[in-house]
Amino acid sequence: MKQDAQQEINQVEAPNSFELPYESFTLDNGLKVILHQDKSDPIVAISTIVHVGSSREKPGRTGFAHFFEHMSFNDSENVPKGANRKMIPELGGSRNGGTWSDGTIYYEVVPKDAFDKLLWIDSDRLGYMINTVDKGTLEREKQVVKNEKRQRVDNRPYGHVGHVVKKALYPKDHPYNWTVIGDLEDLQAATLADVREFYDQFYVPSNATMVIAGDIEIEETKAKVKQWFGEIKAGKPVGKMTPEPVSLTETKKLYHLDNFAKIPEIRLTFPTVESYHKDAYALDALGEILSSGKQAPLYKTIVEEKKLAPGVYAWNSSEEIAGTFTLLVRGNAGTKLDTIYQAIEEALDNFEKNGFSEAQLTKIKAEQETSFFYEIESVLDKAQKLGQYNEFAGSPEFIKQDIKNITSVTVDDVKRVFKKYIKNKPSIITSFVPKDQKELVVSGSVKANVVEEVIKQGKEQQFVENDAIKFEKTPTKFDRSEPALTDLPTLTTPDVWQTTQSNGLTVYGIEQNELPIVNFNLVIEGGQQLDLGNKLGTASLMAQLMNEGTQNKTPQELEEAIGLLGASLRVSSNLETVTISGSSLAKNFDATIALLSEMLMSPRWQESEFDRLKSTRLTRINQGKGDASTIARNAFYKKLYTESHVAGSPVGGTEKTVSNISLEDVKQYYQQNITPKMATFNVVGNVTEKQVSKALARLNKWQGEAVELPQQPMVSQRKKPTLYFIDVPGAKQSVIMAGKPVVSGNSAEFHPIQVANNRLGGGMSARLAQTLRIQKGYTYGAYSYIRGAGYQSPFIASSQVRTNVTLESLEIFKDLISNYKETYKEEDLAVTQNMIIKGNSRKFETLDQLLGMLTEMSRFDREANFVEQQQDYVKSLELNAVHNVIDKHFNEQQMIYVVAGDAETQLARMKEFGYGEPVVLDIEGNPSK
């Protein structure tokens, strides 16, 4: 093995030179602009980074940078109300934003014909939005952001850890003393004056970098940028942030009794250094070496030897002015965190004594080389990278220095930063344990100051949006009226080749040579539907075990062999398939397929690894019992399908069924069901059909006959709706799911249902999100969708809503679905057609998108030009056809509703919904006793 490893090491070289061509200039008002031309797809991306994050906020106004990001997606002086959220998707594009400690980013991708409209929208947001902000919009966005906080923080296990760590690690006057999303009382206290002050101070052109990438002409784009952005007021310069690293004189131990956690978590947080500091690169590598992989000391000690937890994690997080290094372990149920803490210290001692090999570090660098290319795959990726380097590292050119710094890290560097920042150094130690298991916390811990929100009925402030707000319009020399669309780009479907190997394996491929990378998957029909009923989860455990070594390689050796190639290989399973997914550098494709064939044809079946994976699966199942979304989803499927249906049980099985599985069961499943005649290999990227066929010749020894798949029972449509309720005590939000079974993914009706759903729940511009989020402020997001399956696919509408508007939200779901046909007009059809037809221009950009297309094509027996066929269907679609689909498949009276929320405050209200007494279920989805 050592000789093989050395040969593989010699194959891996980080990119010595890499060119991402661009032109940059600065407008007179200070806006920094970068242009990158990429004509591989008829699309354009704009990414704008404003150099303001939570670190620029004032105490008492925490969360304001993120809140302002939300405000910026509303009105502006020259763009219609809601254009940011509605118009861009309806032009066939996508858009979003994000805020972190140090910055805020706004980004969009559109077909090239909408490029001028995007310049219009973006420039108006940056320079002409503040006069349109009114009290109604302010209050609505407060509700939305608070709902986001509940969804991401308050209503989730371990959600408050970030708050606790920041308060303990950073002094009160440090810019990182609070979380990005901030405190609820601070958000509620925000005023219109605060909004204007924040805008005037930070949303000035000189505090931003805008990158335009895609199918553009450089000189023409320069002129357009000067027109649209040149008149924006310069404003006062914003001062630079300077590093403010912190240190600890002693370890602080804090605990929290978590309402949603089912297993205990310990987290050690050490102060480190800011981004781009030379030590940050070595700390990044240290995190990987300590926790990632079979040779990692934390994994070996805590998971493998002591069996205290299913996994371990370590990472460095360097930000603009300071950084942290984190060690995280979520233990098995009932495990005392003192025991895990001792094991962490033992693992760190072993690391100091034994060190690590050059091969381990080389493996990390090889993986980073592959990641480097995937991080610049799409035009949006490129735009965001160039902007990030320009705004935070001083120049787009830093992209070259960054990869050089990553690949220059040495073994001595890693050892040095370990001693400097981690070994025997003070840290913040947090213990988050189930609310009734205080005995598990680390000894000497004190109670953390976590304030849990109390949600009362009717407490939230009401708001009224003013659609006719009057404001003073900023005079401009350039006409800021809405520009026209240019010519619609032609849809060009990539060429697909298809062949069959001698053993019956079907192969589909697309050659795409933009980057030296390849994505692929091997999909084997079967999955959980072939498990025995009392041993559901067998396929899942088998798939996981196939990752753990081969007959010729230990788990450690296999992991190293894959890593040294800069590749990824992972076996997984779902209800209907077992899949080996992978990626590699083009130069290492053949070697990667050699490892795939070894994993596929000669699994190791190691008893100790099986026992570990089984224990891990049981822990994960237990962990899910604290997550309202998981609880609701499992119950929804259980009630939607029959007990004998494959979709009626969670992927991976239940505690009871997994406990029944033995290693012999796994082996038997493999022998009976893993056969090439049930498999398809899909591959996209910088590799030819000839190269693929040559590499796959290794699999010709893989033999086996076709397996008969069980016919899933047809689920009859309900004659009346039923409401189910599951108690999640103390929940700050209720998870709502509604839906019914419709048709299989290979049905001719499947795509028409997808199309008909567009205006109901197909994105932020559709009815559910516009009503529940934009009009009411009840939620962070609401959607409906249908996902293809070999059985009757489920149509699902869902959201997470503020607890005290659960009933009101249910009524909105019922109203919008019930009246969808009557409210779906010709203008809805026109929007649907526009979104889908123009959105297809973005359908073939990345390897993941191409691989997804091939996988859909092979799984559901679609023709190679099925995207064009679907586009033709949409182009010729008439209103009565959509109405017929809605009539047949969106009948609200055939649906079930599942709510997972706080029974104490909400269960009694459910009777008012009009569907009788709600059926109360336990967290397993069974009738409550």
Short description:
This protein is α+β, with helices and mostly antiparallel strands and 929 residues long. It is 39% helix and 17% strand. Residues 32-170, 514-647 form the Peptidase M16 N-terminal domain.
Main features:
single chain, 929 residues, alpha+beta, Cytochrome Bc1 Complex, Chain A, domain 1, six-stranded mixed beta sheet, 34 helices, 17% strand, globular
Rounded radius of gyration (Å): 28 Å
pLDDT < 50 stretches: 1-14
For the record, the CATH class of the domain at 497-701 is Alpha Beta
CATH topology of the domain at 497-701: Cytochrome Bc1 Complex, Chain A, domain 1
The CATH homologous superfamily of the domain at 497-701 is termed: Metalloenzyme, LuxS/M16 peptidase-like
Instruction: Work out the helicity level.
Output: 25-40%
CATH-level-2 architecture of the domain at 497-701: 2-Layer Sandwich
**How far apart are the termini?**
58 Å
Q: What is the average of the pLDDT values? A: 93
Structural class comes to: alpha+beta
Characterize the largest beta sheet: strand count, sense, and whether it forms a barrel.
6 strands, mixed
Largest sheet strand order? 1-2-6-3-5-4
Shape descriptor reads globular
Task: Explain what this protein looks like in three dimensions.
The chain is α+β, with helices and mostly antiparallel strands and 929 residues long. Among the domains are: 252-447, Metalloenzyme, LuxS/M16 peptidase-like (Cytochrome Bc1 Complex, Chain A, domain 1, 2-Layer Sandwich); 497-701, Cytochrome Bc1 Complex, Chain A, domain 1 (2-Layer Sandwich), CATH 3.30.830.10; 722-921, Cytochrome Bc1 Complex, Chain A, domain 1, CATH 3.30.830.10. The protein has 34 helices and 24 strands. It has a 6-stranded mixed sheet, with helices on both faces. Mean pLDDT is 93; it is low at 1-14.
